[in-house]
């Protein structure tokens, strides 16, 4: 689905923010990108979305160099789910979701009935059809995040890139969003998500990428990659990983230590 080889990127006069960075995302993967603030996670996402052009190396999407893929076609392959924020204009939830159809319609065209039907189906799939006529600015944070995921589903891409999809959400909404992500992976989506919560890697992901100073310093299965030593070194804080009994399968939990 996605292959990144030895890329570097930086802004003029600022040096490289990404250096020698490589990763792969295969069909059906749920990949968690962990790293402290300033590690370069957002910069990497911008490169993967074709917004920022890498200086060296290559990014290939379904075997094609990203620079050779027209923006509309790329948007039909990779959909971006940002962190939920407010909007300047009073868009309805349905309007926000219909925007996901942009890569499928002409530049001057308006959404058709079938485009609206696709958007309504995405709302139903995520259990928020009742919010269709509500203003996006007036719904809760969890509902906004589900709306943005519905917009990405409406885009009908095969890969979702999610920037901290549970940021600023309470536990209940975090679990709700994580369940949706798991369901989407079960439907065949490939997912790359950034997170500041190592527990999400244990709960959800089959692959973890650990990023620091613009490089991927470790990659592998969560149980191999997310360890007390790796997290302590990554965040500069003491961390304890414990197992909690949950039926037949123990669950790993990451706990930060103050002392």
Automatic annotation (TrEMBL):
SUPFAM superfamilies given for it?
P-loop containing nucleoside triphosphate hydrolases
UniProt keyword terms in alphabetical order: ATP-binding, Nucleotide-binding, Transport
- A Pfam family annotated for this chain is ABC_tran
Gene3D superfamilies listed in its UniProt record: P-loop containing nucleotide triphosphate hydrolases (3.40.50.300)
Identify the residues that the record assigns to the ABC transporter domain, covering every copy: 2-238
Q: Which SMART domains match?
A: AAA
Q: Which CDD domains does the annotation name?
A: ABC_Iron-Siderophores_B12_Hemin
According to the UniProt entry, its GO molecular function terms are: ATP binding
Q: Which domain of life is it from?
A: Bacteria
The question of whether DNA repair is a record keyword is answered with no
> Do you know which PANTHER family this protein is assigned to?
IRON COMPOUNDS ABC TRANSPORTER, ATP-BINDING PROTEIN, METAL TRANSPORT SYSTEM ATP-BINDING PROTEIN TM_0124-RELATED
Protein name per the record:
ABC transporter ATP-binding protein
Naturally occurring in which organism (per UniProt):
Anaeroselena agilis
